[in-house]
Amino acid sequence: MGLLTNLKDSISRAAASLFSEEDPKRIGIYGPPNAGKTTLANRIARDWTGDAVGPESHVPHETRRARRKENVEIERDGKKVTIDIVDTPGVTTKVDYTEFLEHDMEKDDAVRRSREATEGVAEAMHWLREDVDGVIYVLDSATDPFTQVNTMLIGIIESQDLPVLILANKIDLEDSSVQRIRNAYPQHETIPLSALEGDNMDEVYDKIAEYFG
C-alpha cells in the first residue's frame, strides 16, 4: 500500500511540474520601418539559438510578413526566460510604391511590394491586439521618434496593458540621440543599443529577462 501511495505521489508531483511550466511568452518586435527590428531579432536569435530570423536590408519594408522564432531561451544571472520572438513588419500610415522605385525596382515589383507591405502592417496590428504577451519597441535614435505612428502604437500597447521595453537603436550613428527618445516617451524606460554592432546587448538581455520573465 505504501509503495502504491508513493508511486501516486511521484506521478502527481511529476504532473504538477509538467503542467506548471508556462508556455513561452510571445514577444513582438515593433517599430517604424528601417528602425532595425530584424537586425535586433537576428542578433537575439543568433546569440541564443545560433539561427537567424530573416533577411536584413536597407530597403524599407523588407519584412512584409511577421516571422517567428520559437523557444529562444535567455539566461541572465541564473534565471532563464523562454520567449518566442515575433519580428513584425514596420508600421506606417501609408506604403507608397514610389519608395521602392528609389531602390532600382521595376514598377510592377514596387507595386507588389507595397501591397504586401500594406497587408503586413494589418497583420502586425492583429498580432498586437490579439497574439503577443509583451512588446520590444525599436526606434532609430538618429531620427525624430515623436511621430503620429509611434504615439499611436505605444498608446495601443499601453491600452492593452502589455509590458513594453523601448530600445533606442543605432547608437553607432553620428546623429544618434537617446535622450530625444527618452524625452518623447518618458513614461517608459529606454535602453540604448546598436543591434548591428552588438553594443549594449548585455543590458538589453537583462531587461528582457526583467520585463518578460
| Strand order in the largest sheet | 2-3-1-4-5-6
Number of strands: 6
Main sheet properties = 6 strands, mixed
Proportion of beta-strand residues: 15-25%
Short description:
The chain has 213 residues and is of the alpha/beta class. It has helices at residues 2-20, 37-48, 98-101, 107-130, 148-159, 178-184, 201-212; strands at residues 25-30, 67-76, 79-87, 134-140, 164-169, 190-192. Residues 23-177 form the AAA+ ATPase domain.
Q: What structural keywords apply?
A:
globular, 42% helix, 213 residues, single chain, 7 helices, six-stranded mixed β-sheet, disordered N terminus, alpha/beta, 6 strands
Describe this structure in words.
With 213 residues, the protein is of the alpha/beta class. It starts with a helix and ends with a helix. Helix 5 (148-159) links the parallel strand 4 and strand 5. It has helices at 2-20, 37-48, 98-101, 107-130, 148-159, 178-184, 201-212, and strands at 25-30, 67-76, 79-87, 134-140, 164-169, 190-192. The model is unreliable at 1-20 (pLDDT under 50). The protein is globular, with a radius of gyration of 20 Å. A six-stranded mixed sheet has the order 2-3-1-4-5-6, with helices on both faces. Pfam families: MMR_HSR1. This is GTP-binding protein.
